[in-house]
From TrEMBL:
Pfam family, one: Myosin_TH1
Cellular component, GO annotation: myosin complex
Domain called TH1: residue spans: 15-197
Species of origin: Magallana gigas (Pacific oyster)
Protein name: TH1 domain-containing protein
Any GO molecular function: cytoskeletal motor activity
Top-level taxon of the source organism: Eukaryota
Amino acid sequence: MEEKVVAESLFKGKKENYPGSIKEMFVDSRLENTQQNMLWSTFDTKVKQADEKVQYSAPVTKFDRHGYKSRKRVMVLTDKHLYLLDEKSYLLKDKVPYQQITGVLTSSFSDGVFVITINMDENGSKGDLILHSDRVVENVTKIVIHGKKSDACRVISETSITHGISGGKKGCIEFTRGQTSAVKKAKNGNLCVVCTMPFVSNLIPQ
């Protein structure tokens, strides 16, 4: 119940797909049994620190900062770090200490994209993380709770979000309306997120 209260404070009246996200309980893992076994056998033994505790795990799609190629990942939240793992091998792809996260951004539309902004002054920072999930409200709420980032979460009402790339460069994610949801690289080089209109029933306050 506490998680739903946090989600309400973050998204109610701000993000179009919030009402549909609260119809079922939030859980600690969105992985299937075989995926969960891989997490235990590989991540627990080869990746995470011995004193870390896994708090949440879920499949996500990551978009490259350059070129926006999509890659299947598993997001794991512990009590210390946010991890992104290769979907098949479960080996480490990204590891971000919570103290390096400066923002968790989503649009106000019905899409599942969220951007984790990272302190570029930290050594080894490759830039912000661009992620997509069918459960964006749950994902972001979990990051906010376990990373203690309630003040860093923002729902952006504009039609674009700027993200950082190593070397001080910037990229742009554009949001637009369409009949079919899609996330793809646009002709202008930006990442284009096509958002459908939510059902009218989903706009009724919960």
